[in-house]
Design brief:
Layout (H helix, E strand, L loop, with lengths): L2 E3 L2 E3 L9 E6 L6 H17 L4 E6 L10 H15 L2 E2 L3 H11 L4 H4 L4 H7 L10 H14 L2 H9 L3 E4 L2 E4 L14 H6 L2 H4 L8 E4 L8 E2 L3 E3 L4 H4 L4 E5 L2 E4 L1
Parallel strand pairs: 3-4, 4-5, 7-8, 8-10
Antiparallel strand pairs: 1-2, 3-11, 6-7, 9-10, 11-12
């Protein structure tokens, strides 16, 4: 099937650069156990099928909801240094970053799993978020938040492109050039992106909106399978034009 890519017609399918394999991992949400299993599978796959260039891309939402957000970031910080992994920013990481500078942000963050993340760092929870307790919570987290985790947050990207594939957390706004995309859309967009059949120029690999199984569309692939509650952390391996669930 012919596709219009960047205004030019092409008959070949989307592909990685030569001798390159990309491993993309969906939303983890505090499931450090599933992440450890996923990393082991990636390492095993590379041992069995060596390749010149391998790239690991984690699509964001490492924290909240699941029981061990701290453990997830511990593992990813190591992966980022040792394997030069690409770690994208999810909307949940954005909320954490805002809270570290503005304690009032807990009011929004608390609705999407902040309490589980704070608990994973050993921060005790007061359910009555008065102005005093929001500041206390922020100070308590900042006191125990590892320097390596601060550096990890500083290394997060909002997007990553490789070959004919674009990796973002939530999606992109259809019809808007990548350099003009709003960061809020990259981290938060849903229906305008999910319902669109627009050819984005690249196949968009994303998470953010949980699905029961990996959702393959002509213009995007959703690999968020709700790991924190389903127990399924999806990873896909992309090599040339082949895409497989690892």
């Amino acid at each position: 099937m012919r596709r219009e890519i960047g205004g030019h017609s092409r008959s070949e399918p989307a592909s990685t650069p030569p001798e390159t394999r990309i491993y993309a991992v969906g939303d983890i949400h505090g499931r450090s156990d599933l992440l450890a299993e996923t990393i082991a599978r990636i390492d095993d796959d590379l041992r069995r099928r060596p390749i010149r260039h391998s790239v690991e891309v984690y699509l964001g939402d490492y924290i909240d909801r699941g029981p061990d957000s701290k453990g997830v970031i511990d593992q990813l910080a190591v992966r980022l240094v040792r394997r030069h992994a690409i770690c994208l920013r999810g909307n949940h990481e954005q909320l954490l970053e805002i809270f570290l500078h503005d304690p009032e942000a807990i009011r929004q963050w608390a609705h999407v799993g902040a309490m589980q993340t704070l608990a994973s760092y050993g921060v005790s929870i007061n359910p009555n978020h008065t102005p005093l307790t929001t500041v206390s919570l922020q100070h308590a987290l900042r006191e125990v938040f590892p320097r390596t985790h601060e550096l990890f947050l500083q290394c997060l990207r909002n997007s990553f492109s490789c070959g004919d594939f674009l990796f973002v957390h939530a999606g992109i706004r259809p019809g808007v050039p990548m350099e003009q995309q709003d960061t809020e859309d990259l981290l938060w967009i849903r229906d305008e992106f999910l319902d669109s059949t627009y050819n984005h120029g690249k196949i968009v690999i994303h998470g953010h909106t949980p699905v029961e199984h990996t959702d393959f569309r002509d213009n995007r692939i959703n690999i968020d399978t709700g790991a924190w509650r389903s127990g399924v952390l999806t990873t896909i391996a992309i090599e040339n034009a082949d895409i497989m669930v690892l």
